[in-house]
Amino acid sequence: MLSAQHSALSTIFRREAGLEVLPLLLGSLTLRPYVFFFLAVYLVVSSIHLGYLRTAILFVLAWGLAFLSEYSSTRKPTSSWSRPTGSVNPCRWLC
Q1: What angle in degrees, to the nearest 10, is found between the helix axes of 52-74 and 33-50?
Q2: Which residue(s) pair with 14 in the sheet?
Q3: What are the C-alpha distances in Å from 51 to residues 28, 43, 54, 61, 64?
Q4: Is-above-0.85 flag for pTM?
């Protein structure tokens, strides 16, 4: 439930299900500036050596692979091979 003091700026950038785009981007930038620095260096050097089109293609492919990896790692179904079997204490798997 939103309070009356909720700022109008965050409401502007709010999307469905409470996703606040601008605060997430600013938080990522302030907490991990080295990631954006290395990304900028990569884009500049790669565009010099490979050209803009190849750099864009490689960037999109790498971003897509990273996104799919992160997405699938957080949404794996529980399978039978990951459950404890045998004489192992089941409580140990819960802690």
Answers
A1: 140
A2: 20
A3: 28, 10, 6, 16, 20
A4: no
* Two structure tokens written together for 31: 């907490």
Q: Which residue has the tokens 């960037």?
A: 59
For the stretch 41-91, pLDDT in tens is 999 999 999 999 999 999 999 999 999 988 888 776 655 555 555 555 555
Return d(Cα 52, Cα 44) in angstroms, integer. 9
Long-range contacts of 60-64 (CB under 8 A, 24+ apart): none
- From 16, 15, 12, 36, select the one nearest 26 (Cα to Cα): 36
- What's the DSSP call for residue 9? H
Asked if residue 46 lies in contact with residue 55, where contact means CB atoms within 8 angstroms, the answer is yes
